[in-house]
Design a protein that fits this description.
Blueprint: E1 4-11, H1 17-28, E2 38-47, E3 50-59, E4 62-70, H2 73-97, E5 129-130, H3 132-142, E6 146-151, E7 157-162, E8 168-173
Parallel strand pairs: 1-2, 5-6
Antiparallel strand pairs: 2-3, 3-4, 6-7, 7-8
Helix pairs in contact: 1-2, 2-3
Length: 174
């Protein structure tokens, strides 16, 4: 696939050439987004009557992630490709606009009730050097609430997160 590497994992589903070639065909259109090497990890899974596809695209260290579920695997593939395509357009526009020239950081204090929730999920993060602007751009692209990264300037671990008012907060860990 040229400058693209696709890694497909099947969970609770029989890998078929038809599904694999359909996904490869759909993913090929994403190769137009960059001249750089693109790594794509796809996880196709089935649980009861739900067919899920998760795609994680790595373009020069920038991650774009999408997940969709449908009753049909082919529909789930179409939905996730459409979602990723929208995120890629948003990512390219943000790169052009450079809207993230400066981040406004606001500090607020809140009292916290006693901890009564269980930790039910663990996620591992590969922490890489980013500027604040790059972290904010990646946060917006991934459509997540926060991103953990190593500040390229200070070399400290940091977190940029979305606040309820739409602005961003920044936590620098020293």
């Amino acid at each position: 696939m040229g400058n693209m590497e696709l890694n497909i994992t099947f969970k609770n589903i029989e890998p078929t050439d038809a599904i694999k070639s359909y996904l490869e065909k759909k993913v090929k259109k994403l190769s137009r987004i960059s001249q750089k090497k693109i790594d794509i990890k796809a996880v196709l899974s089935t649980e009861k009557f739900r067919q899920s596809v998760e795609l994680v695209i790595n373009i020069d260290g920038n991650l774009i992630k999408g997940e969709e579920t449908s009753e049909d695997m082919y529909s789930a593939i179409d939905l996730v490709i459409d979602k990723i395509d929208r995120q890629l357009k948003k990512y390219r526009e943000k790169l052009k606009d450079k809207k993230f020239d400066s981040l406004s950081v606001k500090t607020t204090e809140k009292s916290v009730a006693p901890f009564s929730k269980k930790i039910v999920k663990k996620e591992n993060y590969v922490v890489k050097p980013l500027s604040l602007e790059e972290a904010a751009l990646q946060l917006e692209t991934l459509e997540q609430d926060f991103i953990v990264f190593k500040d390229a300037e200070s070399k400290h671990a940091s977190v940029v997160y979305k606040q309820k008012d739409g602005n961003y907060g920044w936590i620098e860990i020293k």
